[in-house]
Amino acid sequence: MFSKSRRSIAHSMGSPRLAFTLVELLVVIAIIGILVGLLLPAVQSAREAARRLQCRNNLKQLSLASLTHTQQQGRYPTGGWGWFWVGDPDRGFSKNQPGGWAYNILPYMEQENLHQLGAGQAEATKRQFANQLTHTPLPMYNCPSRRSARPYPKPWDGTFVAYNAVNNDASNNVAVRTDYAMNAGSQSAHQYYGGPSTLAQGDDGSYTWHDTKASNGISFERSEVKPAAVFDGTSYTIMIGEKYLIPEHYQTGRAGSDNESMFTGYNNDQYRSTHPAHLPMQDRQGYDNGMCFGSAHGSAVHFAFCDGSVRALNYSIDAQTYAALGSRNGREVLPKMDF
């Protein structure tokens, strides 16, 4: 009996350990941390790739709506009047329409009801509906790498208002915005104005409209560009692209080129230049530029061309080539491009 007990004790003393030491635990934690550190960039990269793909798809849908508008109306979407105006459902699709491209393509992207808000109503009622328009987000107009589709602050509402919408209520100091802009051309002079103070001024000639003879883009102030005017070919002329934004003001409304509703008229909130001095840029902290196209994406910026194709252009694109792509009628000889 005694010898049996000693054998049991000896057997138990030689049995394997079942617990970790503190050192072993720390090693395991360190290994897990390294694996997570290696995995996290891959996950972030995959998420950004998905967002970039969604951004391209947004541009594709916006370009198809613009081309359907062009087929139906015989011209590309007009640029509208200025930042003092939003779209009016009773004023058609020509130079008499105060709203810009983002408003004018609504019927061609299954948003006829939104486009027609207030149609046929008295002015006071129509103003209320115009206010509803400027508060209605549409995901297709926003790049998911930047921001979601919702109304954002409009802190300068006391100065920058729409004459044909309600502006005397603090609750109206928000507006929906777009991350995309239409090509206003490669010419050097891009001037944006509020526009006339009444519809009558815009119609009867008492307001002096600006000379747009040099404008060589697809949409600008009161534009009526027909497909036949795209001499350089639809495959080599930019129609819509991502607009540059300063990252710290994605949501504040304090960037001068991103402080209005996306349904205003000609305004650098939704129109940009391809002049050689305004090459496309990746969004960067501390730098605001209301003239150029740009993107939150790392390697390139997306553009929809007048043939409906969507292509990525590198930020390092040659300046003259870029200007030629923004001009509809320069008849430039372009190098072979690997889009």
Can you characterise this structure?
The protein is an alpha/beta fold. The protein has one domain. It has helices spanning 2-13, 22-73, 101-104, 112-115, 123-133, 199-204, 319-326, and strands spanning 152-153, 174-175, 180-183, 238-242, 271-272, 281-282, 294-295, 300-305, 310-314. The strands form three sheets. Strands 5-3-4-8-9 form a five-stranded mixed β-sheet, covered by helices on one side. The protein starts with a helix and ends in a 13-residue tail after the last helix. The model is unreliable at 1-12 (pLDDT under 50).
Describe the protein's topology.
Blueprint: H1 2-13, H2 22-73, H3 101-104, H4 112-115, H5 123-133, E1 152-153, E2 174-175, E3 180-183, H6 199-204, E4 238-242, E5 271-272, E6 281-282, E7 294-295, E8 300-305, E9 310-314, H7 319-326
**Poorly predicted sequence stretches spanning 5 or more consecutive residues:** 1-12
The coarse overall form would be globular
Beta-strand percentage range:
5-15%
Distance between the termini: 89 Å
Total individual domains? 1
In total, the number of strands is 9
* Main β-sheet description: 5 strands, mixed
Binned, the helix content reads 25-40%
**Strand order of the biggest β-sheet:** 5-3-4-8-9
Radius of gyration: 28 Å
Instruction: Figure out the total of helices.
Output: 7
Overall pLDDT: 89
Order of helices and strands: HHHHHEEEHEEEEEEH
Backbone structural class: alpha/beta
